[in-house]
Amino acid sequence: MAIQSSFDCRLCGQPVRTLPLPLGRLPVCNGFSPSESGDRAADLHIVECETCRLIQLRTPPPPDLLTPRVPWIRYREPEGHLDALAGELLALRPGARNVLGTGPFEQPLLSRLGARGLAASALALDLPIVEGRFPYLESWQATLNVAHLAARAAQLGTFDIVSCRYILEHAPEPVRALQALKQLLTSDGLLLIEVPDSSKFLAARDYCFLWEEHSSYFVEETLRDLASVSGYRVAALLRYPGVLEDALVAVLEPADAPAPLAAARGTSAVFQAYRDNFATTRAQLRSKLDALAGPDRTGIALFGIGHHAIMFVNAFGLADLIALAVDDDADKSGFFPPGFHGPVVGSERLLADERIKLCLFAVAPHIEGKVRDKLAPLAARGVQFRSIYAALDNSILKDPA
Predict the structure, then answer these.
(1) What pLDDT, on the 0 to 100 scale, is given for residue 1?
(2) pTM surpassing 0.90?
(3) How far apart are alpha carbons 239 and 1 in whole angstroms?
(4) Is 354:363 a contact under the CB 8 Å cutoff?
């Protein structure tokens, strides 16, 4: 389906008219439910600005639609690089005395900086209690506005280092968010922005990294541009490698005025290929898994039911082919993942089901070995193990025809 996009880019403000990648109306990925009937869905149309090349969600869903309905929705972000990052920050500001964290992923970095002598503080997410609502990332990003942060600066003062990890990509107005964060900085303070780098999944044409909660998909170029138009200089741009995606860290200093962007760049070849290959990939994958599922649709299990797995199933239209949704997280047990036809079961159920011929992995590469060990009896009886991640050698997306 081709949809002509026309809206203003959330980075450069220029009109965006390029054709999007239209995924259609998909279930909200945190919408786990006691029954199969889910009532929350969002339109996902991914587009690239032909001026600044920011890849973005055309229309971010309203926060209330994204607010979890269960209390245990929580995400993990990379931590292995934080010792090195703490060292980089203190090398840039050796006289720093204090640091403030502005989101739910700050404590690991705050602890490291605190151990090096800085006074560490963290903003709290203070919201009224609403029955059946459990605010998380959609509410954290909404606090990155001028009025709220001005009030917090008046209460707490300013800081030599302010950290904002894995929130900015969720913000529908990232320029205003960066401008608002400036209020928390001392005159020579540093603002740390950490986001997932999108380069690897775009190059691999991996579609499970798309998410209704991500308004922007940054790469190094667009993160630099965001800093410039928001009134910052880039003191350092750091990359910490990961197998599927790198952590991209911009360390910023306030500038006297925003800097203009360069001339329009045009749509990138990477995004064009990513957009244009989706329909073919979807059809080929569906055909392959349809054969492996068997006539009774009992042959395929999916292990690791997070938002990547949920996007993989719903974006590619595979729900009817997944016989078992498997996860050993006790909180998820018995809940229906959004868009799925069956509830989450534990690995013991998978091990006991002799109809399974293929087990798809939606787990981080560094723990896949442990999962394989746990599921060794399946391998012994000939069950295939394949990953959903396109960049991995054992991906089900390799040679999908």
Answers:
(1) 43
(2) yes
(3) 36
(4) no
